[in-house]
Task: structure prediction
Amino acid sequence: MKTILRTYPTEAEANDAMHRALESGWNVDWMRPEPDGIHVSFLRAQDPTHVARTRLRRPTLIALAVAVPLGLALLATAIHAVSRPGQPTPAPVAAIALLPASSPTPELAIPPTSSAEPTLTASPLPSRPQPTASALPSPSAYATATASFTLARVTHVTDGDTIDVVIDGRTDTVRYIGIDTPEYGLPYYQEALEANRALVQGQEVRLESDISPRDRYGRLLAYVYLASGLFVNGELVSQGWADSVTYAPDTKHQAEFDALEQQAQSQQVGMWAQATPIQVIVDPSCSQFDSPGDDNYSKEQEYVCVTNQGAAAIDMTLWWIRDKAGATYYFPSFVLAAGASVRVRTGCGQITQTDLYWCKDGSAVWNNGGDTAYLYNAQDQLVHQMTY
Result:
């Protein structure tokens, strides 16, 4: 088992992080309030077949939801007593009884999958071989010359697309607009984090806004520029560590990001490094991205199909497939015969030679209005991609 410990400033951010972790194959071991925030321990099994079946039970989430506010209240009481000597101490908060195991379990509202959700921070992961990048355009090729900027200093790099900054003495969290980098626990997370850190850690930056000032998590939304004029959002896409992802209505530079992503793919840099040609493809002819009725309630009928067009069987153990927003499925121990196809269904079911099951919590994966499926091998090299 692999374990990490993370700290979040608010209960809401901790809950959002837990949901994202569950969708990435992690379990929540425990969560508790501490003076510096909400501490959460995450677990992950090494066996991908175990990961695919692991789920956190609702009673555990309910217990956490009750225990955290209680702990925060008790903590506030203790802090009040220490910080205000000689003042009357507030009456202790009454104990709250957790629901007994036999009580009915209320439904939990799990937010739909969104690429704009916060991502988990982590300790460094084992490094992977880095692809050799082709020549990239100079920073001035995609720097914005005239715009209204807010000056800030970067104090912390959370992941590939999120930073903490100080603006006029006040700390704020910034989410980069128009791009998305891999979540914690997914391939290339560490590379994206390190690329972002190399660009902005400790730097004075300029923040350019778009239509929306903040996202629903309260993070400041911005295009980020170094003092040299380097466009950080664009540079991460250009290096191949970030996807160009549209978050309407904030689309001021989306055409630039799309062009930079196409260039990175053609140059096979970053996560677009190509595997040795192999005849396994994402096959639209046997895929069904729009299931009958409401996709979220018919996920077993939503599936992406992979076909082996070669003359030899392919061991697909630990291969993985993702959508544009980063939702990722890892193949279990599985061999795809020559000329055969396999459907990866979003819902749950019994694995066969023709059907695998994502068993994904929350919302469906594939966008009815169009999406891109990326297929990677066990060495995290891109094998095939298909846009519909």
